[in-house]
Automatic annotation (TrEMBL):
Name used for this protein in its record: Uncharacterized protein
Classification of source organism: Eukaryota, Viridiplantae, Streptophyta, Embryophyta, Tracheophyta
Amino acid sequence: MGYAQLVIGPAGSGKSTYCSSLYQHCETIRRTIHIVNLDPAAEHFDYPVAMDIRELISLDDVMEELGLGPNGGLMYCMEHLEENLDDWLTEELDNYLDDDYLVFDCPGQIELYSHVPVLRNFVEHLKRKNFNVCAVYLLDSQFMTDITKFVSGCLASLSAMVQLELPHVNILSKMDLVSNKKDIEDFLDPEPRFLLSELNQHMAPQFAKLNKALIELVNDYSMVSFIPLDLRKEKSIQYVLSQIDNSIQYGEDADVKIKDFDPEDDDE
Ligand SMILES: Nc1nc2c(ncn2[C@@H]2O[C@H](COP(=O)(O)OP(=O)(O)OP(=O)(O)O)[C@@H](O)[C@H]2O)c(=O)[nH]1
Ligand SMILES: [Mg+2]
């Protein structure tokens, strides 16, 4: 049984930075993980790239040869990956052991998580190759400071969750940039009633019914739960990793004891 994290989320939400910090953390604790680049547009890496989509297809070549722009070019690359998925994965995975732990650093184009089926097919292939897969959805904490941004962030994450049908861990990235932690705390694990009253206060009265439906939807899918991640703190990375590991049953036999991470706790 192999294990995999699919690191997804909007452009610039911190996916690649998370991958490199996770890699460093795992090196420190002498745990082996392999980071895979699935972004055909990526150029610089702060982690050793174990597998690389750019060896299959590169965005620069596609843009030059087909005259496509960056987004159209990226979609072309992902469709090309989809068409060659089985061959590519089979060949690449040949270099790894059956119980290896892979972390896939994905591109940030939101359409990949809403209606384009490539990632879903990708996940199906991984499952067929006996991987336990978890979606790790990163959302920038800067977008969590008011209710309307919170709801739109939840809906974007929800659309990925519905599309991928995977165990799903929501992470609030870049917590080091949040000066007032209290602003964020309200949204970490909020009461639906609190969300609804906040939303009603921010919107014109004619939206009351829609607001209620939105909060119910978000609540029904148990989406209203985000884990804050502060990459400066080892304990924070450790806690996030333990939650993800639980969701894919990694290390179930190991005696892992990690106490809850308190974002207010400044100790390393
Ligand atoms: N302060 C701070 N900045 C961060 C953090 N994570 C990422 N950044 C910055 O946010 C920007 C985007 O980070 P990336 O890791 O490239 O984000 P990404 O999600 O991989 O972006 P795309 O691959 O383009 O979708 C960079 O300038 C990072 O330095 C963090 O935890 N704290
Ligand atoms: Mg990236």
